[in-house]
């Protein structure tokens, strides 16, 4: 059965799902998006995802042509028509078709696209063995140039770092900010464990405020684990006891090497495994 794609109020077969080549989302990456997960037919933390989408849109002066309630219903309709209960949802809002040139005032009719499908970001064995990552030379976008908190359709900054990782034989890469501090990976937030304390870069390090990141912080605090959102350097990662990444598609995945240096024991650590289990339970509980 062909997947059905939602575009601005109608469903189209995957091969017929199209937008204008004059859409500024296509021409200039002018638009915003969210990636979400459904577990047991329920979208995990849908209100938080929609709030972040609306914030991203507001930050780029883009009016989403529907309410959050209507958007939520459209997401569930897209899951239902495709018969997907455990899946991945990509929600995209583009500037709409306009003239050639950057002026957003010459665009009309912003497009809302919802894709429901399945995703496996990393092979299952990497969740057991852990990832090896490298530090990319491509730094994270400077927050004064383009706020990393805007989840925009232009991901070239991340893609260039991803290419560096792939060329080094790694499926993920660490990105530093303009100060040389740890920011995040190309598609995931990063955490370390040091002497029983969970640490992660703060929002002002130039990161996306991840929904899964927030959930992990909540789980850790509920378990009585100290949590610090503080600036980190590569040195902190090199001497960490444990390291892991979080993201909607990735969920929680351990990291066991950075730049060929072993982190901790070189195996996924006990706190990482504990949080992985608790996160799996959380997604089932909220489903």
What are the main properties of this structure?
287 residues; alpha+beta; 9-stranded mixed beta sheet; 6-stranded antiparallel beta sheet; 8 helices; 30% helix
What does the model show?
By secondary structure, the chain is of the alpha+beta class. The chain has eight helices and 15 strands. It has helices at residues 24-28, 46-59, 68-81, 124-129, 156-167, 211-222, 234-238, 270-286; strands spanning 4-7, 10-13, 31-39, 42-43, 87-94, 112-117, 131-135, 173-176, 182-185, 189-194, 197-200, 227-229, 242-247, 251-258, 261-262. Strands 7, 8, 9, 10, 11, 12, 13, 14 and 15 form a nine-stranded mixed β-sheet that branches. The protein is globular. The two termini are 26 Å apart.
């Amino acid at each position: 059965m062909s997947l059905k794609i939602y575009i601005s109020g109608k469903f189209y077969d995957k091969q017929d799902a199209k937008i204008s080549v004059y859409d500024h989302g296509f021409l200039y990456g002018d638009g915003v998006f969210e990636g979400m997960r459904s577990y047991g037919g329920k979208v995990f933390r849908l209100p938080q995802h929609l709030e972040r989408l609306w914030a991203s849109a507001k930050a780029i002066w883009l009016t989403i042509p529907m309410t959050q309630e209507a958007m939520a219903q459209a997401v569930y309709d897209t899951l239902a028509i495709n018969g997907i209960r455990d899946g991945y949802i990509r929600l995209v809002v583009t500037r709409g078709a306009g003239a050639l040139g950057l002026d957003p005032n010459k665009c009309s009719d912003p497009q809302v696209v919802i894709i429901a499908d399945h995703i496996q970001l990393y092979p299952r064995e990497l969740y057991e063995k852990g990832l090896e990552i490298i530090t990319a030379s491509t730094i994270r976008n400077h927050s004064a140039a383009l706020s990393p908190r805007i989840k925009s359709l232009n991901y070239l900054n991340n893609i260039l770092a991803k290419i560096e990782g792939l060329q080094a034989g790694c499926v993920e890469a660490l990105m530093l900010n303009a100060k040389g501090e740890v920011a995040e990976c190309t598609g995931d937030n990063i955490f370390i464990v040091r002497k029983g304390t969970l640490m992660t870069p703060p929002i002002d390090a130039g990161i996306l405020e991840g929904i899964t990141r927030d959930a992990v912080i909540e789980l850790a605090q509920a378990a009585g684990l100290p949590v610090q959102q503080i600036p980190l350097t590569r040195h902190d990662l090199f001497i960490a006891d444990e390291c892991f990444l979080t993201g909607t598609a990735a969920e929680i995945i351990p990291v066991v090497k950075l730049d060929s240096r072993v982190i901790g024991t070189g195996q996924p650590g006990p706190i990482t495994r504990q949080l992985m289990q608790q996160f799996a339970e959380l997604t089932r509980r909220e489903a």
